[in-house]
Amino acid sequence: xxxxxxxxxxxxxxxxxxxxxxxxxxxxxxxxxxxxxxxxxxxxxxxxxxxxxxxxxxxxxxxxxxxxxxxxxxxxxxxxxxxxxxxxxxxxxxxxxxxxxxxxxxxxxxxxxxxxxxxxxxxxxxxxxxxxxxxxxxxxxxxxxxxxxxxxxxxxxxxxxxxxxxxxxxxxxxxxxxxxxxxxxxxxxxxxxxxxxxxxxxxxxxxxxxxxxxxxxxxxxxxxxxxxxxxxxxxxxxxxxxxxxxxxxxxxxxxxxxxxxxxxxxxxxxxxxxxxxxxxxxxxxxxxxxxxxxxxxxxxxxxxxxxxxxxxxxxxxxxxxxxxxxxxxxxxxxxxxxxxxxxxxxxxxxxxxxxxxxxxxxxxxxxxxxxxxxxxxxxxxxxxxxxxxxxxxxxxxxxxxxxxxxxxxxxxxxxxxxxxxxxxxxxxxxx
Length: 431
Description:
Helix content is 18%, strand content 42%. The chain is of the alpha+beta class. The protein folds into three domains: 7-30 and 288-428, no CATH class; 36-158, Sandwich (Immunoglobulin-like); 163-283, Immunoglobulins (Immunoglobulin-like), CATH 2.60.40.10. Strands 3, 4, 5, 7 and 8 form a five-stranded antiparallel β-sheet that branches. It has a five-stranded mixed β-sheet with strand order 13-19-18-15-16, with no helix packed on it. Strands 9, 10, 14 and 17 form a four-stranded antiparallel β-sheet that branches. The protein is globular and about 80 Å long.
């Protein structure tokens, strides 16, 4: 099948991949992308205290500015709101409550409408072990609109004689108070931008003994293939109570998208460890893309062979630049950070990989090719047991008058497009 690309195809694809398609009922949704659509996001981390029967909850809150009312005040625009935080236990009883007011300002109204602009807040609360629901509610003091978030947590009992390691926090901003590092605001969702030079892993350790001691810290950062990208080992001196530390990590070697970090402590016959994921957000790329080189290969349905070869044969940096230029030219809203067309295309790639995989990846199958370019059909006719033919499917697009006929050629689920029995715009797509 010749998948030659034309300008007409790109124009048609831009229309086909309109936002009306993105909400199709069988389309997968990416949780990380949906975070941007939330009014408020929350991250809860558990940190040890000096007492074995309690834990400090550090609640970090991200408030999206576009959901607040900003009122002109002099040369600025200000928003005022009240935040209520409740830790709810058995029988909906509030074990802890914290209520406070905040005011934020921006120099221009345009700065308040940026969909990626947000305000961060945090609060620390000490609670005993148990099962709880943490509820955060925000009230806009100008229009009284209310929104919030909630999350269930479990605080497990801690042995007084055990070494305790806090949850790990990923941060790019750190300040020091009395010589101790303090996280200004962690990266909620453990996501960092590729334009940051260094990130810090922040952790806290509880020493179960009454005397200072030393422990061995082992740090390992692994990629998707379980290969260690970075790691080291060092001796940490612990005070007699709580000690805090920072582990710097340069981002230069992080060329992939997803990593797994493990921190292990051992000493005096005790061990404890924590793991958590780290995701790199590549500037100018859809968050659905996990491998840029593969993402380049996956645009073969909507680009010319010459363009594709140019991207693949260029060095890595130049190839990525050409890839960005390709999608930038198709961006339906170039003045916003998000490229909706790119997101929709790779959402369809992800759906195809999940639902159409055979001996090839789902995006490489004929099912995947049609789904990626034209989106979900209005109806699928399945014929798995017709006695006079091999199993086949017919995908129908009623409003466009298209019909795609797929035949299981080897009877093992390898459905191929039968062009002779299909009706679709061949002149503008493939032929």
